[in-house]
Write a structure and sequence with these properties.
It is built from 16 helices and 43 strands. The chain is an alpha+beta fold. The protein folds into four domains: about 5-280, 7-stranded beta/alpha barrel, CATH 3.20.110; about 285-375, Glycoside hydrolase family 38, central domain (Substrate Binding Domain Of Dnak, Chain:A, Domain 2); about 510-780, Beta-galactosidase, Chain A, domain 5 (Distorted Sandwich); about 800-885, Immunoglobulin-like (Sandwich), CATH 2.60.40. Helix 10 packs antiparallel against helix 11. It is globular, with a radius of gyration of 29 Å.
């Protein structure tokens, strides 16, 4: 007999068409009623609270007196929460962010008493290929998904195995076409229940891959009805051929997973559920500025704040762990799929911006304090008369030695800005900028900077025991050659010396329309596109960075083209200006205007763009900074990169790896949602064949399209004004509640950065090479200037380096114990790799661990080298090592 597991639940969008405050008020009312129901119905085995602990966090913030009752229900399994902190849209956050999301959920459920051990993702707009591997880092081997997976891939069955890139797999329950709401159709009057069950049974029973079927009873923001506990009994009276039981999700998986017979197996990303349920891939470019800010914050926390705090913690017992956890909590709150996808009310978008501001401020403070701790700088002593000197520190945020050219900023004092009531104080005055060179501390080697710009600015200097000091300064942006490579996660310090010194090396140069070094040449063409040339091979790529606008009749969920529309491109000639002529950095700037179909006040619209193209040192890539002023509505703005590579696949960076995709066309079926031609990418996308190829780089997430003609298009923004429209050709029917969203038109200024480099087929077969280019572009050595630094004797700063071809550095965090470092990497190759971490201090113990802290294996020490920890990384595997360093 088939057993129907009736699983009571609610799906709760924390913020969507209402801001958090509105939904939180409804949440409190819903949970109040739910707790009363669970107390009144002791035979009701449980209620699924949507797989995210944020809901109980929000509830207990209002009802702290209910914590004991809530914890008792969670411990008994009658109130299921976790494993996530929030239900993210999993395609957009980085892989490290998804791990932090689960880590925050685990932190919360340990306090609450129990976690639901299922990767529950009932409404995300698709799922990355690495999700099984990410879940298994927390011991999660079961999952629930809906969007992104269709009948063709699943074979029309509800239970399947999903294999991750590393070969590990999870058992997936695939929700039916009606999703997690299907069981709410049974919450009807007694006279209608038989007809309702026949309709539901016709959908769920033919899909059953075992004798156990999960049937979710609930819907968006729905409270549990009083008659919920008797539903199984009432259904049994209607259909005695089926066993009905009120159940929990973990119970269902235990019984269904042990059923005889095998299940089908799938691999790769889940991004296509057309003709099954909406996939809503248009959200990857909605409110694109928020997604870019999120990527910048992910970089700040994972590649700056966390490793610097971990290294500083080896020297000082102070820990920034709690501050970083709070910053991650604020950042991950932005990853809820309606928020990070931008398919939300404008009030939600504004709230996301505030949380991003708070997380950025916290991360920046951790970076500053950690650098000061590593240097031995005490801002209070500097204010109290200690001997000080200007100092520049260069910190290498990569787990490999790096040299080359670093771009930095230095401040030169001009005048005090006095804050407070006027009195006898007299503002100090300084000389401002004066020519300088830099002496490397330790070696005494003198290097000459290239001055890039000098601008007036304000600088505030903070100290724990004093009011801030505000100064008028001259802010000098300059390039600095590193005379010796900086070790992985290591430091170099410099002091300014007066006078001019001739540059040691000639890396780059520029003329009226061209910038070049020995590896790439870039020429600005007539209308502002760029011709890229490789001096070594002679390969040329004309027409790059072509700005294009096309009308978009869609909404926050779906792009919709306009019949008969034409693509608009700039036509006016541009006049480049040489901003930097070398010898370390060459740069050109220009401005262009693009006419668009619609303006915000009627008539035609415009996009004004300012471009800065830079070549830094001898790197094989160009940096492209674009300042947009969008004064056009209802359009999609993209950059086009014609490569000339017809019918070749593109390889896109993804969470903990990469994915190959061929060219796709936006299909136009007779009915239903149109499949899209665009796709998500993280960090880079590249194509190469027959001795030529290009890679486009971005700080984090972005949307791209790869065409059969060999054109790569990167979306800069989608400008739309409605949360949902019901009359779209590309998606008939409303995907949300119709609401004006004027902020989603993305009007005004924004600055964004991209990189571009020529690549070859060999680079695509070893994607770790592309990761290194990305790292040099968007995680370059951090240059930190301290205008009045105290000179204190400190031990050399620790360093960490990763060895092993194919391995990519992912994280460095403080462990729980003093002297413990958590080091994570992933293998970009299909075959196993012998890797090692090399540290600047002896390692007394090391373990291979999961991200949740579970021990996989003790790692034996290297008898010949106590500062080296060796390990084996399986193909496409995530590897975390816990290493305890000697004091």
């Amino acid at each position: 007999m088939t057993t129907i597991h009736l699983i009571p639940h609610t799906h709760w969008d924390r913020e969507w068409y209402l801001p958090l405050g509105g939904f939180r008020a409804r949440l409190v009312e819903m949970v109040d009623g739910l707790l009363a129901l669970l107390e009144a119905e002791p035979d009701l085995p449980g209620f699924l609270l949507d797989g995210q602990t944020a809901l109980l966090e929000d509830y207990l913030a209002v009802r702290p007196e209910r914590r004991g009752q809530v914890c008792d229900l969670v411990r008994s399994g009658r109130l299921s929460t976790g494993p996530w902190y929030i239900l993210a849209d999993e395609q957009i956050p980085s892989g490290e962010s998804l791990l932090r999301n689960l880590a925050l959920g685990r932190f919360d459920t340990q306090a609450l008493g129990r976690s639901m051990e299922v990767i529950y993702s009932p409404d995300a707009f698709g799922h990355p290929a690495a999700l099984p591997a990410i879940g298994r880092e927390f011991g999660l081997e079961r999952a629930v998904v809906w969007r992104g997976l269709g009948n063709k891939a699943s074979g029309g069955k509800d239970l399947i195995w999903w294999c991750g890139p590393d070969g590990g797999r999870v058992l997936v329950y695939h929700l039916p076409p009606d999703g997690y709401e299907i069981g709410s159709n049974l919450l009807v009057s007694p006279g209608s229940l038989a007809d309702a069950w026949r309709r539901v049974a016709a959908e769920v029973l033919p899909r059953a891959a075992s004798k156990h079927v999960a049937l979710f009873v609930g819907a968006d923001h729905h409270a549990a009805p009083p008659e919920l506990a008797s539903l199984a009994e009432r259904l049994a009276a209607i259909d005695p051929s089926v066993e009905f039981r009120m159940s929990r999700l973990d119970t269902f998986f235990e019984l269904a997973g042990s059923a005889p017979g095998g299940f089908a197996e799938i691999q790769g990303e889940l991004r296509s559920s057309y003709d099954y349920t909406w996939t809503l891939q248009g959200t990857h470019a909605t409110r694109a500025g928020i997604k870019r800010r999120n990527s910048e914050l992910e970089l700040l926390l994972t590649r700056r704040a966390e490793p610097l705090a971990a290294l500083a913690g080896l020297r000082h017992r102070r820990s920034h762990g709690a501050i970083l956890r709070r910053a991650w909590r604020e950042l991950v709150q932005c990853h809820f799929h309606d928020a990070i996808c931008g398919c939300c009310d404008d009030a939600v978008s504004r709230a996301v911006g505030v949380r991003l501001d708070d997380a950025q401020a916290a991360g920046s403070e951790v970076v500053r304090n950690s650098l000061h701790a590593l240097l031995g700088h005490d801002p209070d002593l500097a204010r109290e008369g200690a001997v000080t000197t200007p100092r520049l520190v260069v910190w290498n945020g990569a787990a490999r030695a790096r040299g080359g050219v670093v771009v930095a900023e230095a401040s030169f004092f001009v005048r005090d800005v006095l804050v407070g009531p006027p009195g006898a104080r007299v503002p100090r005055k300084g000389k401002g900028f004066a020519p300088f060179a830099l002496a490397e501390m330790g070696s005494g080697m003198i290097v000459a900077p290239q001055i890039l710009s000098i601008e007036p600015a304000l600088e505030r200097r903070d100290a724990a025991r004093h009011y801030p000091e505000q100064d008028e300064i001259e802010l000098v942006r300059f390039a600095l050659p590193l005379p010796r490579g900086v070790s992985g996660l290591g430091l170099r310090e410099f002091e300014p010396v007066e006078g001019l010194v001739e540059p040691m090396e000639d890396f780059a140069a520029a003329s009226a329309r061209s910038a070049w070094n020995g590896r790439v040449n870039a020429m600005v063409e007539r209308t502002g596109t760029v011709l890229l040339e490789e001096p070594g091979s002679g390969e040329k790529y004309p027409g790059l960075f072509q700005l294009e606008s096309e009308r978009d009749a869609g909404d926050c969920y779906s792009y919709c083209p306009v019949r008969g529309d034409r693509v608009r491109r700039p036509t006016r000639p541009v006049r480049p200006r040489v901003e930097s002529a070398g010898p370390l950095v060459s740069a050109l700037s220009w401005r262009t205007v693009l006419g668009c179909a619609e303006g915000p006040r009627g008539g035609p619209g415009k996009v004004r763009a300012g471009v800065l193209l830079e070549i830094v040192g001898d790197t094989p890539a160009i940096r492209y900074r674009l300042t947009l002023d969008n004064q056009a509505t209802n359009h999609r703005l993209r950059l086009r990169f014609p490569t000339g590579l017809r019918r070749a696949p593109a390889l896109a960076g993804a969470q903990f790896g990469a994915i190959s995709r061929g060219a796709e066309k936006a299909a136009r079926p007779r009915k239903g949602e149109w499949p899209v031609a665009t796709a998500p990418a993280h960090r880079w996308v590249a194509a190469a064949a027959k001795g030529r190829g290009l890679a486009v780089f971005a700080p984090g997430f972005f949307e791209y399209e790869w065409t059969g003609a060999g054109d790569l298009r990167v979306t800069l923004l989608r400008s739309v004004g409605e949360l949902s429209k019901g009359n779209l050709a590309s998606r008939p029917g409303h995907a949300g509640w119709p609401t004006p969203t004027p902020l989603a038109q993305c009007l005004g200024e924004e600055t964004l950065e991209l990189g571009l480099a020529p690549v070859r087929e060999a680079d695509l077969s070893h994607p770790d090479r592309l990761e290194r280019i990305w790292e040099d572009l968007f995680a370059p050595p951090l240059a930190h200037w301290i205008r009045e630094s105290t000179v204190l004797p400190v031990a050399p700063a620790p360093s960490v380096e990763l060895e092993g071809e194919g391995l990519v550095f992912s994280a460095c965090q403080s462990g729980v114990e003093q002297g413990e470092l958590l080091l994570r990497c992933f293998n970009h190759l299909e075959e196993p790799v012998q890797g090692a971490w090399r540290l600047s201090r002896p390692v007394v113990r090391a373990r291979r661990v999961r991200v949740d802290g579970a021990v996989i294996a003790e790692l034996p020490g290297d008898l010949a080298d106590s500062q080296r920890v060796g390990f084996t990384a399986g193909g496409r595997e995530i590897v975390t090592v816990a290493a305890w360093l000697a004091p």
